[in-house]
Amino acid sequence: MTTWLDDVFAAPKPIIAMLHLSALPGDPGYDSAAGISAIVDRAKAELDALQTGGVDGVMISNEFSLPYLTQTEPITAISMARVITELLPEISVPYGVNVLWDGRASIDLAVATGAQWVREIFTGVYASDFGLWNTNIGEVARHRHRIGADGVKLLFNIVPESAAYLAERSLASITASTVFATLPDGICVSGLTAGAPTDTQSLKIVKDAAGSVPVFVNTGVKAHNAADQLAIADGAVVGTYFKEDGVFENRASVDRVRELVGAVRDFRKTL
């Protein structure tokens, strides 16, 4: 079955690498002495490692903007736009963006930088580490249309990290109603935190209920489990595994990228 993934990516079951930006202006961890140039330098080095290692796409996010906001301050997306603009001449694969945890700001950033997709929490109400977390997909969808972003694909994370859905509903029910009522372009299934394994059973439940909508495994993909995860999912988003020693805070390692990408390419030969 052909999906938009076939139009965007050069290979089936694409591997999208996370490019985690350092803490930005306004974030508690921002290094004001080093400034934006240090963020750009690190991002360029990690982008080179990811692309040299053979990933199919990259997704640029403010992963180190801890603790996260569910409605970000304008300086966050503005700073990300500055960094991404400096990266653009060196990006050679399809790319998306994610302003954590703000769907509307993510779409705005995509329009400003030419990104082809965004990933965010667009539906549901959650009890989270960041407080009570509400969404409004109807408003976001209309905003997307108003600013001419209909071509920007929306990846919905329906099992968000560090949060629990407040309604007593099954994962299959949530997936089916999300697909029917909110029109996602893709669905992401996550573990508890960045790098945490995604439960294979949960992944299969979502895939079975999602119909023709592509499903991504969003956390915890490693070289040894990539084949099992991609036997179910239509693609994978990978961040922590690509870091040196598999440590979230570290920089991307080209050797670890090549290891996982090699396992995925071996799996593709069986398709």
Automatic annotation (TrEMBL):
Domain of life of the native organism: Bacteria
PANTHER family in UniProt: SGC REGION PROTEIN SGCQ-RELATED (PTHR21381:SF3), ZGC:162297 (PTHR21381)
The family this protein is said to belong to: Belongs to the BtpA family.
Protein name: BtpA/SgcQ family protein
